[in-house]
Specification:
heterodimer; A: 11% strand; globular; disordered C terminus; B: 76% helix; 0% strand; elongated
Chain lengths: 558, 93
């Protein structure tokens, strides 16, 4: 630790070397992780709206909101409960469409079985109903894991999953994104240490003086203004990425002899009603109606009934969007009388400091704690993190291709530059193709994720090849900006043609989320087209480090 | 002509310490922390988990910045061995 503390102590004779070491660590961390960080940050900015804005846009059935007839829902629950058999009535889950990640009304019946190995497995029967007509569309019977893995997905799920694990799955994808969070956190710390005149840099933005200053000033301004956000995102991202694959197994190994289920139960105890054996009729429909009337502004995610048919049965209603900084809030009520027994956040059942912070991790990462306004800020700041990564990469390349640093040839740095441009712009193009795929692909829901992946990765690869092939990066950036703009502007048009949801109509017929997504794409598309027209088609003749250094103070180089 | 002194001594071994050594040590500290922290059961397990990004970052920056690589390995090894010992004692006892 001595080295760490001495190095940041002002006035130390080794301060200059130490700052240079921090600078080298900062730049190499950025270069090694830059493109991946751009990918995770950009998809993160998208994922902020994954649930439920993009989810609603992607599913025509829930556009314009879903009005719930809780009485009809209760009838369906009772009808299915009589069909599935006694052993599936321990836990009944009602998943309501349109409010979060569910696009159909799903009623699940769950039982716990003990395997020969002694492990517990949850088996479910899930009935899926049309969100508006409530007609039964399909029935799933199998393990809870299989149901979760095989659930139909759409472009919103595709993007959120890509952000979480880059579609590399558990554990490697989660490890990778977790490590990226750690390296971003270290970059934030080293960035603060090397930029000592941090307050001056808040207002130091000179975009028109030279390309290098555009990159460095953008990097500094984004870094300083978004400092708290970048740190928060890095910390929570590292935690969320590594918690399941490294931290929980490690903690379970020590505290519960490797039994991870037991650890999870300790933190998230299951609801266990004190069964009396006295039969009583549960009233989920009335209770949900009453609850909705009393809490008109929260999202009802699901309702879980434990101890069905007993007078002690409990109905736990999970909500989002209350006045707490928590992933969700649960209200436990009597499933018979509707009397509120207790309410708590996800990790709030215990009186612990840890619970408060664990509750905050997810909302702080995804910005879903203060309505759409916070989501917009989070998304913009997420784009800022992505730009921070890419400008950092470009500064590193500029200094080596046109300055005194670097051991490779100029051509090699140009290739790295073209690859960076292709990877970053290609991701933007690929993310826009998801909207087209969602509207145009006519395949089974189960196969949709596969085809979304084919279109997404193919278009991304094509853009990378294009950027590598075109020697003039300025021209390729200009062209790709135009392509992004046209693609974004085209989405509302295609949406109007395919679904009939014309932007001007959706603004007034209650489909505000659809209108919001279309309008955002339209504005972003027009901005990209404008930017494409403004961007230079070739590198300015005297825009290099060698020239710029003559008129720019040395301290700006850092 | 004499080569200019490098800022980072033994870069390959340092890289190994920064990548592998730090991750292993931070994980052992996180797991071992639950055996001695003076909190209730939930916080004893949860606090080291929550602090993992901070633990990793401090160890990483120390390993990258310290002048003596020998000292880096010594610090990482002592922390790892102590926490591995605490875990063993907890599981055996």
């Amino acid at each position: 630790m001595r080295a760490l503390f001495i190095s940041i102590w002002p006035g130390n004779v080794m301060q200059r070397d130490t700052t240079k070491k921090y600078y080298i660590i900062h730049s190499w961390l950025g270069v090694v992780t830059g493109i991946l960080l751009f990918i995770v940050a950009y998809t993160g900015a998208f994922s902020v709206f994954g649930h439920n804005e993009l989810k609603v846009w992607a599913n025509e059935g829930v556009r314009g909101g879903v009005t719930h007839d809780y009485g009809a829902v209760e009838d369906l629950v009772k009808q299915h409960a009589s069909d599935v058999g006694e052993d599936y009535l321990d836990h009944i889950r009602i998943m309501l469409p349109g409010e979060s990640s569910f696009t159909r009304l799903q009623i699940g019946f769950e039982k716990e079985v003990v395997l020969e190995s002694g492990r517990h497995e949850h088996h479910v029967i899930v009935f899926s109903h049309n969100p508006k007509t409530l007609a039964l569309e399909d029935t799933f019977k199998g393990s809870l894991n299989d149901w979760f893995l095989n659930r139909p997905q759409d472009m919103a799920d595709f993007m959120v999953t890509f952000h979480a694990d880059l579609h590399l799955g558990n554990p490697w994808g989660l490890v990778l994104t977790g490590l990226l969070g750690l390296t971003l956190f270290a970059s934030v710390i080293t960035g603060v240490i090397i930029h000592r005149k941090i307050l001056r840099e808040l207002f130091s933005f000179r975009p028109l003086r030279s390309l290098r200053l555009l990159f460095t000033d953008t990097h500094k301004v984004l870094g300083v203004w978004g400092l708290l956000f970048h740190g928060t995102i890095a910390f929570t991202g590292a935690f969320l990425g590594l918690v399941l694959v490294l931290l929980v197994p490690a903690a379970a190994f020590v505290s519960f002899s490797g039994d991870q289920e037991k650890l999870v139960e300790t933190f998230l105890p299951e609801i266990e009603p004190a069964i009396t054996g006295v039969p009583a009729e549960p009233r989920p429909g009335d209770i949900l109606t009453q609850f909705r009337e009393n809490n008109p502004h929260v999202m009802l995610i699901d309702a879980n009934i434990h101890g069905w048919g007993d007078e002690s049965a409990i109905m736990a209603i999970t909500t989002l969007g209350g006045d707490t900084l928590a992933a969700s809030e649960t209200f436990e009520l009597s499933a018979v009388t509707g009397e509120l027994q207790k309410s708590y956040s996800t990790f709030g059942k215990h009186d612990s400091v840890t619970g408060v912070f664990l509750d905050a991790m997810y909302p702080l990462h995804f910005g879903n704690f203060g309505g759409v306004f916070v989501k917009v800020i989070w998304s913009l700041l997420g784009v800022g993190t992505a730009l921070l990564a890419v400008t950092g990469m470009m500064i590193w390349i500029e200094r080596r291709a046109y300055g005194p640093e670097g051991n490779l040839s100029k051509a090699a740095y140009h290739r790295i530059s073209r690859f960076t441009v292709g990877s970053c712009m290609g991701l933007v193009v690929a993310s826009l193709t998801l909207f087209y795929s969602q509207l145009l692909l006519r395949v089974d829901a189960a196969a949709l994720t596969y085809w979304l992946g084919v279109v997404f990765f193919s278009s991304w690869a094509l853009v990378i090849f294009y950027a590598l092939f075109i020697k003039n990066s300025y021209q390729s950036i200009k062209t790709l900006f135009l392509l992004c703009g046209l693609l974004a502007v085209g989405v509302p048009v295609l949406n109007a043609v395919i679904t009939g949801d014309i932007l001007s109509l959706t603004l007034f017929n209650g489909k505000t989320i659809t209108a919001g997504v279309d309008a955002t794409l339209l504005v972003c598309g027009l901005f990209c087209i404008w930017a494409s027209r403004k961007l230079p088609a070739k590198r300015p003749d005297n825009d290099s480090l060698n020239v710029s250094n003559r008129s720019i103070p040395a301290e700006d180089v850092a | 002509m004499a080569r200019p002194p490098t800022l980072f001594s033994a870069p390959k071994a340092r890289l190994l310490a920064c990548i592998l050594g730090v991750l292993v040590t931070a994980t052992l500290i996180t797991a071992g922390g639950a055996t001695y922290l003076p909190f209730n059961e939930i916080d004893r397990i949860g606090v080291p988990i929550l602090l993992f990004p901070l633990t990793w970052s401090l160890l990483f920056l120390y390993s990258a910045m310290a002048n003596s690589l020998w000292r880096v390995w010594a610090v990482l090894s002592v922390l790892s061995v102590v926490h591995a010992g605490l875990i063993y004692q907890h599981l055996a006892g």
